[in-house]
Design goal:
The chain is α/β, with parallel strands linked by helices. It is built from 14 helices and 13 strands. It folds into two domains: 25-275, 3-Layer(aba) Sandwich (Aspartate Aminotransferase, domain 2), CATH 3.40.640.10; 280-380, Aspartate Aminotransferase, domain 1 (Alpha-Beta Complex), CATH 3.90.1150. Helix 2 runs antiparallel to helix 3, helix 4 packs parallel to helix 5 (103-116) and helix 12 (282-298) runs parallel beside helix 14.
Length: 381
């Protein structure tokens, strides 16, 4: 916990919502803010393009892509809106998603569907899952001749399920279907190599599992798909009078969003460096073990069940508390007010889950605090 700015009085088991920033990364973030404020014109007009290019190069190396295939964006919702609005989708076309998708990104496609006349089709992925092959087969039941785009999570937010994105991208490419992967929870939690993954479009947060400052994300567009993607925000990076990133049209069109604080983007390399120094090997294995211990212990309490086999989750675990017949908001409030535990209580379809996250700051005592709290809650339910 000492490497982070988290409140030591709170058992923080919700890294999956907004992440947490290590102190040294936060200091790098503040360094860039200070440079901006000391000479805003020089920084934004003369220095920033080169600084962003250097940061983009380091992120591309970390994610296995080419620098000109990446741009920084505030979050995956921004990237999902970009694709939903720019692709030439219309009446008769379908976008296939799973029934596990994050609400904000799903809403982006549903909004665009209402405007443009295409359909968003949700295909069920039944829980518990049995194998990656079974997931692919069940998901593919939603594909037909009208399917033009597949949008799916790499690791789902609501159900903490790792999906076989590479296998689905490969099958989609063979069928001539575009793919966009929402990797909000993937980089920093599992290895991601965009060149091998095979997605046409990929987006991710950097402020979750990479532990960069809030408001940092990436949007990947494979080079041969870049002519398809119009910018969501048109500014000085677009057109013949473009001011920034003249060397690459895709980067120029998409990365200059007008005046904003670029410090979160510039601090992402520091977060990647922190990961490589402090959170590999034994440290990462410890986080996995703690999450699995939380699931194993909690699921032995009467009325609580595990959801996934261990192979299908990493640093976010899930327990099913539907049988407790409690209101989700009341349970979340009870965890925080009575036990000072920060953990999300999630309604998904007709079920209720608690999602437990672990990172470098998580301890065995944190897990014990959570398990003991759940025992008391069940006893007093």
């Amino acid at each position: 916990m000492s490497d982070f700015l988290l409140d030591p009085e709170v058992t923080f088991l919700n890294h999956g919502s907004f992440g947490a920033c290590p102190k040294e990364v936060f200091e790098d973030y503040q360094h860039w803010q200070l440079q901006l404020e000391r000479q805003p014109v020089r920084f934004l007009q003369r220095e920033l393009p080169t600084l962003l290019a250097d940061a983009r190069r380091k992120v591309a190396e970390f994610l296995g892509s080419q620098p000109h295939e990446l741009v920084f964006v505030p979050n995956p919702t921004f990237a999902a809106n970009t694709i939903a609005r720019c692709l030439p989708l219309g009446p008769g076309d379908e976008v296939l998603i799973t029934d596990h998708e994050y609400g904000a990104c799903r809403f982006a496609f549903q909004y665009a569907a209402e405007q443009k006349g295409f359909r968003v089709v949700q295909q069920a992925i039944t829980l518990p899952v049995e194998s990656n092959e079974a997931i692919v087969d069940e998901f593919w039941q939603g594909v037909n001749e009208n399917t033009k785009l597949i949008f799916m999570s790499h690791i789902t937010s609501s159900t903490a399920l790792t999906l076989p994105a590479e296998a689905i991208c490969q099958r989609a490419r063979e069928a001539g279907i575009l793919t966009m992967i929402d990797g909000a929870h993937a980089p920093g939690q599992i290895p991601v190599h965009l060149g091998n993954l095979g997605a046409d479009f990929y987006t991710a947060t950097c402020h979750k599992w990479i532990c960069a400052p809030k408001g940092s994300g990436i949007f990947y567009v494979r080079e041969d798909r870049q002519p398809m993607v119009d910018p969501l925000v048109v500014g000085w990076g677009w057109g013949p009078e473009k001011t920034f990133h003249r060397e690459n049209e895709f980067v120029s069109n998409h990365e200059w969003l007008g005046t904003h604080d670029p410090a979160p983007f510039l601090a992402v390399p520091a977060a990647i460096a922190w990961q490589k120094k402090h959170f590999t090997g034994e440290a990462r294995q410890k986080a996995w073990d703690l999450v699995r211990s939380a699931v194993d212990q909690a699921s032995q309490i009467e009325g609580i069940r595990r959801v996934h086999p261990n192979a299908f989750f990493q640093q976010m675990g899930l327990i099913d508390v539907t049988a407790l017949k409690l209101e989700s908001d009341a349970l979340k409030t009870r965890l925080y007010d009575n036990y000072r535990i920060e953990a999300p209580v999630i309604r998904w379809q007709d079920r209720m889950f608690i999602r437990v996250s672990a990172h470098a700051y998580t301890t065995e005592q944190d897990i014990a605090t959570f398990v003991n709290a759940m025992r008391e809650i069940v006893t007093n339910a």
